[in-house]
């Protein structure tokens, strides 16, 4: 079986955009288990000969409990349980938020590698946006731009190095 990489982060940071960048058209399985209140969307990613499954955890829906915090907790739990490596995504344009810190709190407990990706670093001028995220404590943040296709190779390199 392929190793599993989960993309985790608060809504709107760009998880689905990056997920689509990584998988291209290799959407593998859409598993909708009856009785289980989450849909899982898997894609296949590949970098330098290493192939892995990717989960866009933002696709998780919780019946009757759609508050952001609950949904974020659910995502993080799933990632901690099932992933071999976690991409923790934040938004460099918006800056560090309380919800990012909530996600971070949960990921500290994961005995899994966490790769911190700062999305929406759309050009060189925005590169300084990554520095405040060092305080999250996951090492060097990787600046990326899903919409401009910047830094995806660096991100995937960090991911497969940690698998
Ligand atoms: P998700 O909720 O985390 O899955 O985020 P989405 O992938 O749906 O993206 C949320 C919004 O951010 C959308 O309007 C995207 O077009 C936008 N977005 C995603 N990536 C980037 C990026 O690299 N730069 C900018 N400026 N916007 C982005
Ligand atoms: Mg999404």
Automatic annotation (TrEMBL):
Shown chain mapped onto the complete sequence = 2 to 164 of 440
Gene (name only): der
Give the species. Paenibacillus hodogayensis
Relate the assembly described in the record: Associates with the 50S ribosomal subunit.
Where does this protein hold GTP 1?
9-16, 56-60, 119-122
Q: Which function does this protein serve?
A: GTPase that plays an essential role in the late steps of ribosome biogenesis.
Q: Which family does it belong to?
A: Belongs to the TRAFAC class TrmE-Era-EngA-EngB-Septin-like GTPase superfamily. EngA (Der) GTPase family.
UniProt name for this protein: GTPase Der
The superkingdom of the source organism is: Bacteria
Domain EngA-type G, by residue range, is 3-163
């Amino acid at each position: 079986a392929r190793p599993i990489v989960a993309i985790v982060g608060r809504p709107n940071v760009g998880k689905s955009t990056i997920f689509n960048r990584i998988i291209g058209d290799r959407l593998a399985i859409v598993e909708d288990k009856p009785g289980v209140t989450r849909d899982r969307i898997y894609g296949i990613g590949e970098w330098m000969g290493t192939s892995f499954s990717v989960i866009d955890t933002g696709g998780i829906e919780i019946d009757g409990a759609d508050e952001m915090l609950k949904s974020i907790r659910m995502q993080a739990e799933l990632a901690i349980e099932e992933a071999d490596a976690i991409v923790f995504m934040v938004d460099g344009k918006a800056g560090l938020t309380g919800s990012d810190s909530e996600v971070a709190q949960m990921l500290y407990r994961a005995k899994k590698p966490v790769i911190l990706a700062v999305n929406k670093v759309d050009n060189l001028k925005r590169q300084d946006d990554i520095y405040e995220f060092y305080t999250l404590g996951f090492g060097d943040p990787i600046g990326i731009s899903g919409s401009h296709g910047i830094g995806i190779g660096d991100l995937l390199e960090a991911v497969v190095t940690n698998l």
